Amino acid sequence: MAKKRNEYEQEEVICEELTMEQPIRPLKKEKLEITDLPGIGAATAEKLEQTGYGTVLSIAVASPGELLEAAGVTEAAARKIINAARSAMEMGFESGEELLRRRERVVKITCGSVALDNLIGGGFESGAITEAFGEFGSGKTQIAHVLAVNCQKQYPDSTIVYIDTENTFRPERIKQICEGLGLDYNKILKNIKVARAYNSDHQMLLAEKIEDLITKQELQVKIVIVDSLTSHFRAEFIGRGTLAERQQKINRHMHTLLRLSDSHNICVYVTNQVSSDPGTFFGDPTKPIGGNIVGHASTFRLYLRKGKKGSRVAKLIDSPNLAEGEASFIVTTEGLKDV
What we know:
Helix content: 40-55%
Low-confidence stretches: 1-30
CATH class of the largest domain: Alpha Beta
Strand content: 15-25%
Number of domains: 2
Mean pLDDT: 87
Radius of gyration: 22 Å
């Protein structure tokens, strides 16, 4: 016990020293650990790893407030740690040419429907969040199941993380799609890591734990699916008085998913519920839950609705580089097909 106390006292001294104005020396190592950063000892490193900050990159893209909450260090010490991490990762400006070369590692996961793939630029993109919102039965969860199978068809032995908040994941559906495509459903199901989220805090914790699957278990996570994104937040935060707190939590959750998609080149697919706007007199009154917080954090936004003769219609609402448009598809035993 005495040894543990001395460890914490030693770290407090280091954190106090970091508040002094001193230059941050660049750290040069082939593989940096968070304990190589100034001010992070064994006890602080353990706290950071438990809260999802187990890599130098995750610390570099964090805010001082996040580190303050995660590790209990002072704000000045948190800034020094973050600056040291950013210096080590050489994070700064880069040319458009370098960014274009880095974009070459982006992969596209197809969904089976050529029309829908073309609508979103050739498939669901890695390093981005794609949000699909619509009424029940519009095809949001069907796309999630199809992506889980098609990803492993494109990239064998890849891992899919599925956070289920509404008890909608069905292994029988995965088996059905696999049999239609001639794939081994046992192997596909083995590589899908499903977690049932029982409340919003549990959902946020599961998203933070994905980092451990990648770094500690060394799984090749290609897709993270959250179905649905706002279900628990909508149920737990009722009334205008709780709106600010709800939006703050959703914002934090979305930024966790953004950090995952960007740092590990992962395709993030989230489904969203909708509500009806009574103030809309003309046009479609349907609007997604989560407001501007979800809208700004999502890279691509798809609005799904039921079409004629059992078809589904996807409308691209928002994209950084693609024009708005629509695509029709049908849900079949084998997955998604063009009309």
